[in-house]
Design a protein that fits this description.
It contains seven helices and no strands. With 163 residues, the protein is mostly helical.
Length: 163
């Protein structure tokens, strides 16, 4: 480890030089920490004649590394967005056929429900009304609405089993 002056003036000068290089892109103290860690690692096997210059240059290199990383990340994000736009989201023909068959099955199941239960279930699922709103429209209790919905769901689950 090279002999580094521990006086406050030395560190202020180094930090000032690093801050000038960073221009607000990265916290200069963070860059100084990175540079100091690299100095410690490098000086284990090599001689460092000018620790201040080493710290400033290493901080500058870390800043360049960060800039390059941001550029690559931005390019990757842009490519990823473009790939998402290029992706064909259209379902496959067999998926469309299977979905239509399931929908027909559910429609036939809805026809099997008692009229009032079907009406309540459709208000709940299609119109997205709350039980309280349905109860107000029909004039029965919320509990009765919940029971109709549960009955319809149970029946349709059983009806659609295996599909």
């Amino acid at each position: 480890m090279p002999s580094i002056s521990l006086d406050q003036a030395f560190w202020k000068r180094v930090l000032k030089d690093i801050a000038r290089q960073a221009r607000g892109d990265i916290d200069p103290e963070e860059l100084l920490n990175i540079a100091f860690l690299r100095l410690e690692h490098y000086s284990a096997d090599h001689t460092v004649k000018d620790p201040k210059a080493f710290l400033v240059q290493t901080a500058k290199n870390a800043l360049i590394d960060n800039y390059r990383h941001k550029q690559v990340s931005a390019r990757y994000a842009a490519d990823s967005l473009q790939n998402d736009k290029d992706r064909d989201e259209t379902p496959l023909q067999d998926e469309v056929f299977a979905s239509r068959a399931r929908l027909d099955r559910v429609k036939r199941g809805l026809d099997q429900l008692p009229t009032r239960t079907r009406e309540i279930f459709l208000m709940f699922r299609l119109e997205e009304l709350k039980c309280r709103e349905i109860a107000g429209r029909i004039g029965i209790s919320e509990s009765a609405i919940e029971k109709h919905i549960a009955k319809a769901m149970f029946f349709l689950n059983k009806w659609s089993e295996g599909w």
